[in-house]
Amino acid sequence: MGSVGGEYRLKGIAKELLTYKSGVFGIAFLVVLISLSVYTIIAIPYGGAIDLWRGEGNVWIENPRNAQPYWVNYFGPNLPETIKRDSHQTGAGTVKVLIPIPQTNLKMLRIGFSFDYVYDAFPSEINIFFSARFNESAPFLRIYWTKPGSTEIKLLDYITRTANDNFYLSIHPQVAANIDSYIAGIVGEKPLAPLPVEQALFAVEDQTIKSTTTAKPLKGTYKLVIDGTLFGEDSDLDARVVIYGRICGLAGTDHLRRDLTIALLWGTPIALSFGLTASLTISLLQLLIATVSGYYGGKIDSLIQRFTEGYMILPFLPFLILIATFYRLDIWILLTVIIVLSVFGGGVKSTRALVMQIKEYPYIEAARAYGASSKRIVLLYIIPKILPPIVPSLIGSVPGYVFLEAALSLLGLGDPYLPSWGKVIEDSYRGGALYKGYYYWVTEPALMLILTAFAFSFLGFALDKIVNPKLREI
Amino acid sequence: MTDNILEVRKLFLYYATRKGTVKAVDSVSFDLKKGETLALVGESGCGKSSMAKAVIRLLPRNIDKYDGEVLLEQQNIMEHDETTFRKDVRWKKISMAFQGAMNSLNPVLKVGYQVAEPLLIHEDMKKQEALEKSIESLRMVGIHESFMERYPFELSGGMKQRAVIAMALVTHPRILILDEPTSALDVITQANIMNLLKKLKNEMGLSYIFITHDIGLSSELADKVAVMYAGEVQEIAKAEAFYRKPTHPYSQKLMASVPTLRTDKKPEFIPGAPPSLISPPTGCRFHPRCPSAFDRCSKENPPAFDLGSGHYVKCWWYEQSGEKNE
Amino acid sequence: MAMKGLIKFILRRTVVIYLVVVFAIYLTIIIANMGGYVDEIVKSELTFAITSRFRNDPAYQGYPPDVIDKLTQDEIQLQIKRSGLDLPFPIRSVIYLRNALTLDLGNAQYMYSDSGSRLVKNIILERLPQTVMLFTTAMLVNFSITMSIGLYLSRHHGSKLDKLFIAGAPTSVIPGWFYGIFLILIFASYFHVLPYGGLVDVPPPSDPIQYFLSMIKHMILPLASWVTSAFFLGCYGNRTFFLIFSTEDYVEAARAKGVPPRQIETKYILRPSLPPIVTSFALGLINSWSGAIITERVFNWPGLGSVTYSAISAFDTPVLIGVTIIYAYLLAATVLLLDVAYGLIDPRIKAKFGR
């Protein structure tokens, strides 16, 4: 066995691989990908990742939507981070006072939040999350806002509806109306297209406030005050305000506020395992089929050849789409379908040609002469000879399958719960990332795909040059 | 002296490869008289094919050195530019039949056309006339004219070889270089081809350069024999003198390796392997395998010593007997 | 003599290929019906039509509800019997097969063609020309670029340019549609010089020349994405082909014969290398049909692929089945064309079948 596969010692190959620049790149990228995968699988267990990605239970509620990665700020723009204040934790910037009024079952509540706003852009959203405790009557609240160096604006009178109430301040119509009147009072007229609430609350109050293109944030210390009346001896109210920034996390967030790093990280082992499994299985199956076809010849050969030719005419992608549309597919069943649809593909023809060539070698004839069984000949002599030429194309075809998964996701046929790169691109496409300028949303998964593609492709080409020495001279 | 149709003087052909410079033809000189057959004999890789290509200027792109004098009918064709060479020398005066006739024919062109093609190029003939001449040429080599319309894959190995010869002769050149014309054929076909070659030589007054590794085969046609080893001509002599008594140790070994039918000879072999043309042995190139090598052989490369009547040998043993001939 | 051989060969290939198409379509029908969908569609359409007919027909207005129900059920049963839905599936599948082969693809569930027709055939065929136009142009552009550059590279192999192409070959593993996304990102989203997608500007220009120009403008990015993907590998592949073919013995023999260089290129290098080049062209064509679906989605190009995408989103079964069938035909036609081309350029085939 040693001499049969002798030319292809592993160490020799590895050393030679490194002499080619493409080999170096390929291996480097591959190492990065594998380490990412290993890290991801350890750091964020699969089940946890899926749950996170499904986003149930409001787990992402405190992330901004469509936020850019935090490091964008290093390149110039001074985009806001998310600012949070919680009345559960009094301290710098948070004050809570709860005073029962004697001889009544009323209580006076005052929660005061203050924070500095030093950014050059407006926040994306403002929400307040109330957690209240009350028996019969819900707390009655008045919410006030103070800009730096300015007077207090009353935003709204509000009654919490449930014990855990989410108050979407920036889209609340009453708040918007109140702000509008306030601004009209300042600039003398109602602007035709009023600023969104989260911008109006932070904008410099001069003529620039009239339109989104001219408005600028006012830097300084802001105050949010919640004055309330609580009913009942045991009643209490806490508030958590989140002023959503425009940057978040290592990779930004998507339209569902999910941190994209999860998808980017988890996409790695998914892509790798999908691509490698597909490629390996199909290559090995094709090898087997080609060997049987080429070695045994005769009717089996003709039959298999007809099959192969027929497969070439079958419309692969439409079939895949048909199956994926009708039957809900998770990614592993998808893999099986792809394998079945590819098994009699073109690789069979080329490998079979090789097998037929090797079949005629004298040492095969010699083996038959000393009584070796067909099985022995095939396993011991033929397969080791045809295995090496297959390896480069095996490696080189991995990206194809990874892109196939991405393509199916883009068509809306991918596994809906899986955080794959294709899914992220699909989300971004549907979310209009290209129109709205959310470039990171598209480029991050795309770059991961490119990295993966290049890793295997460069490696495959370098391997090809090694295994087919003819190609080296040319 | 002047009935030499071809005189080659100090011909060099070096290839530049990744592993080094291949000295395929290293200062080769010989003469070819009109109507003469020169057999160029040697092992695989000794530079015989390169020699032929050097004469007919079929060079690859990685040339390191290409130098020397080639006097064709007293004209130095090394000085011709490419266009002149293509029009005046190739196929007009010197033709070549390549090694591996199977592949010398374009698989997608008809046989008749390919045989006629040189006429279309060199003689500017009308197509009809050229095809007539090519029928004639094919008939001369024993191929029926119905094969004009066939494609090369429809011909047997022997027929392809004949067609290649026909193709080489259709322009009635003076010299025909044959590179291993029979090595891919069975012995019977081989004999046929050899007979054909003899017939053609007589009918058309051709001069041959017959390249082969088969020293026995060469004796059928040769008037003169040149033995090549490691890019150099080690011995060159008239056929009779050579076959009766080869002087160079290598030639002697070659002769000794040929099995004979009628005598009880035990064929010998030459130990060792042919040398690398990139870094040939110092001194005499044959010395590592030479049974008669002595001290000087490993240090200095002997010049060609003149033993008289056109017999030259590159071996230190003959320093006394011959005059130096550079 | 050769023609007869050629015709025999073509006929034989046509039969074989047609059989495969039949098999493919049958397979489609089986897959699509495995969930019972095809039948459900027909049954539900039937039920709906009959029920609403009975409800809206003034002649039946006065009847008591249970009488109407019975009449409805009876009619439904009758129609089911009539349309053969009570027949076992194997027989029905053959009926569907026959319909599919004659391109009787039925009605769409939800979709309409631009001309308002519900026929699947119309929906699909209406959009086919745009796809053919885009992708044929892409293939031609691609072919001419890669052939000419490949030829040039083969003549200058080993040069720096050559090494550049060898190094860049792996970039072709990325499919055209992926490059498309990036091109849109750069040229439409960032620089705003080229459109995001679609066939023509909105609203479409009324002047035919302007319309044509607008269409050209919209074709630029899809074409560019396709060419980018195939560029390096295509040039490298062709270059290698030409190199291999130019180192053949008969090329050297031709040079020895004194054949002028240009004739060597055409007769001795290009002609023999046509078969593999034609093969790779055909394979590229086949790939592009499939790739069309995704590319058209990315660029919003109103062709066969867009129809497919709409059908997926709308879950319109008959259209999807129809698309698959059309694709089967397209692919079969391409393979047949490939075989015909082979027959024409490879003398061995003509000879084999002619004698």
Protein architecture, described:
- The complex is a heterotrimer of chains A (474), B (326) and C (355).
- With 474 residues, chain A is α+β, with helices and mostly antiparallel strands.
- Helix content of chain A is 51%, strand content 15%.
- In chain A, helix 6 packs antiparallel against helix 7 and helix 8 runs antiparallel to helix 9.
- With 326 residues, chain B is of the alpha/beta class.
- Chain B has a domain of 156 residues: Rossmann fold.
- In chain B, a hairpin with a 2-residue loop joins strand 4 and strand 5.
- Chain B starts with a strand and ends with a strand.
- Chain C is an all-alpha fold.
- Chain C is built from 13 helices and no strands.
- The longest helix of chain C has 39 residues.
- The model of chain C has no long low-confidence stretch (mean pLDDT 82).
- Chains in contact: A-C, B-C.
- The interface between B and C is medium-sized, with 27 and 23 residues.
Provide the structure class of chain C.
mainly alpha
Low-confidence stretches of chain C: none
**CATH overall fold name of the domain at 4-93 and 173-238 in chain B:** Rossmann fold
Q: What is the SS-derived class of chain B?
A: alpha/beta
Give the total of beta strands of chain C: 0
Q: Termini distance of chain C?
A: 8 Å
Number of helices of chain C: 13
Largest interface: A-C, 49 and 57 residues
| Gap between N and C termini of chain B | 18 Å
Tags for this entry?
heterotrimer; A: 474 residues; alpha+beta; MetI-like fold; 2 domains; 4-stranded antiparallel sheet; 15% strand; elongated; C: 355 residues; mainly alpha; 13 helices; 78% helix
Briefly characterize the structure.
The complex is a heterotrimer of chains A (474), B (326) and C (355). By secondary structure, chain A is α+β, with helices and mostly antiparallel strands. Chain A has helices at 10-19, 21-43, 46-54, 173-187, 197-200, 260-296, 298-313, 316-326, 331-342, 346-359, 362-369, 374-396, 398-410, 421-430, 433-436, 439-467, 469-473; strands at 83-86, 94-100, 106-117, 125-133, 140-146, 152-159, 164-167, 220-231, 236-244.
